[in-house]
Design brief:
The longest helix is centred in the middle third of the chain and has 30 residues. This protein is mainly α. The protein is built from 7 helices and no strands. Helix 1 crosses helix 5 and helix 6 crosses helix 7.
Amino acid sequence: MNEIRAALDGSWLLLRNRPEGMAFFDQSLQGFWRSFQVVFLLIPVFLLSGQIEKQGYFSENVYHPEAFPDGAYWTAQLLGLGVDWIALPIILAALAAPIGISNRYVPFIVARNWTSLLASVPFLITYSLFMLGIIPLGIMVLLSLTSLVVVLWYRFLVARIALQATISLAVGIVILDFLLSLVIAQIVTIFWQV
């Protein structure tokens, strides 16, 4: 709990573009590996997002609820989450030396993993409001897109601060992360629909 609390404090400081937030993260090798466990704290957002996607298929008459391949859907979604969670760290590990971020790779991945928790909050709120029937689909989509823009900006700040990177390198890493997520989501959709 202490590490989570400290990481949330650091995440909040990074969101406010304050580099001292990096000091709140355990940037040791053990802290690096532990930061990957944050994915388990993201499960509520993952489940809500998956449930909303399923409802979308039902409301558009793509699938009837009784004919929906629940097992294949959730298996593919879970695999997709795991692959998405480790794809960028693996690719950046291979690119770290060529793009000159080797000495800042571990702090960046630690910060990226932990800040995912704070970045998930707007989506969690939006999805919860929709699932509770407080906001309609159109508002949920609008809030989700707005949240995405804010999160991409946040990812940029984290990359810029944690990597001590140029604007172009930070933008490139954010775009790479975003594109990887899109490709993985598309592959997941194809996988469970086969």
